[in-house]
């Protein structure tokens, strides 16, 4: 089956973060592709990737970047697919730079921005799964079952030290 979710990132150094999104997609058995696409190092590739995303069958794009993180916004500008932006934790400013670069899109071109770092990448995978689940009942059932497991895990391990 062709990929439904495209996971892109600005650098191989983003992989430690972005693999969390991929782990969720694998766990929920959602076909995805992953690729390094940089807004400033490979701008032509970025445009081609975004422009061909719909015809290649993708339904959602997850884009992670750090620093002056223009990748998610630029990709969103070149596709009508939903784009989820993951702010990668940068060394200099701990990812606050990435967050503000991604989240503050001017009205008109949305990027669904998640939290900085690994938690954000995990939630990006889950959010993409929920998008897919809105038209694929099997995926939606797997998302619901995962939620139930998390709930049960909390209920089963709620003991606090006396
Ligand atoms: C961005 O610059 C990437 O998304 C990465 O988070 C950051 C640093 O990249 P490297 O210098 O580690 O390749 O483009």
UniProtKB/TrEMBL annotation:
Residues involved in substrate binding: 11, 14, 41
Mind listing the UniProt keywords for this protein, alphabetically? Isomerase, Purine biosynthesis
According to its UniProt entry, the protein's GO biological process terms are: 'de novo' IMP biosynthetic process
The protein's matches in InterPro entries, at most eight in alphabetical order, are given as:
PurE_ClassI, PurE_dom, PurE_prokaryotes
Isomerase: is it a keyword of this entry? yes
Q: What is its EC number?
A: 5.4.99.18
- Superkingdom to which the source organism belongs: Bacteria
Biological or metabolic pathway of the protein:
Purine metabolism; IMP biosynthesis via de novo pathway; 5-amino-1-(5-phospho-D-ribosyl)imidazole-4-carboxylate from 5-amino-1-(5-phospho-D-ribosyl)imidazole (N5-CAIR route): step 2/2
As its record notes, the protein acts as a catalyst of: 5-carboxyamino-1-(5-phospho-D-ribosyl)imidazole + H(+) = 5-amino-1-(5-phospho-D-ribosyl)imidazole-4-carboxylate
| GO molecular function list | 5-(carboxyamino)imidazole ribonucleotide mutase activity
Pfam families the record matches: AIRC
Q: Does the keyword Iron apply?
A: no
Domain PurE per the UniProt entry, residue ranges: 3-154
- Kindly list any coiled-coil regions of this protein: none
Q: Which NCBIfam families does the entry link to? A: purE
Q: What is its biological role?
A: Catalyzes the conversion of N5-carboxyaminoimidazole ribonucleotide (N5-CAIR) to 4-carboxy-5-aminoimidazole ribonucleotide (CAIR).
Task: Enumerate the PANTHER family for this protein.
Answer: PHOSPHORIBOSYLAMINOIMIDAZOLE CARBOXYLASE, PHOSPHORIBOSYLAMINOIMIDAZOLE CARBOXYLASE CATALYTIC SUBUNIT
The record's HAMAP family line, in alphabetical order, gives:
PurE_classI
Annotated family: Belongs to the AIR carboxylase family. Class I subfamily.
The protein in question is named N5-carboxyaminoimidazole ribonucleotide mutase
Q: Which gene encodes it?
A: purE
């Amino acid at each position: 089956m062709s990929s439904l979710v495209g996971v892109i990132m600005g650098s191989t150094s983003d992989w430690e973060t972005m693999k969390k999104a991929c782990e969720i997609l694998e766990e929920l058995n959602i076909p995805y592709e992953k690729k390094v696409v940089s807004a400033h190092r490979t701008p032509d590739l970025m445009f081609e990737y975004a422009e061909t995303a719909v015809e290649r069958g993708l339904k959602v794009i997850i884009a992670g970047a750090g620093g002056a993180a223009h990748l998610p916004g630029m990709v969103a500008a070149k596709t009508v697919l939903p784009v989820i932006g993951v702010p990668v934790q940068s060394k200099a400013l701990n990812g606050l730079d990435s967050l503000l670069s991604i989240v503050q899109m001017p009205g008109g071109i949305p990027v669904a921005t998640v939290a900085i770092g690994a938690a954000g990448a995990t939630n990006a995978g889950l959010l993409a799964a929920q998008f897919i689940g809105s038209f694929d009942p099997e995926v939606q059932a797997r998302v619901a079952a995962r939620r139930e497991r998390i709930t049960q895990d909390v209920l089963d391990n709620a003991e606090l030290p006396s």
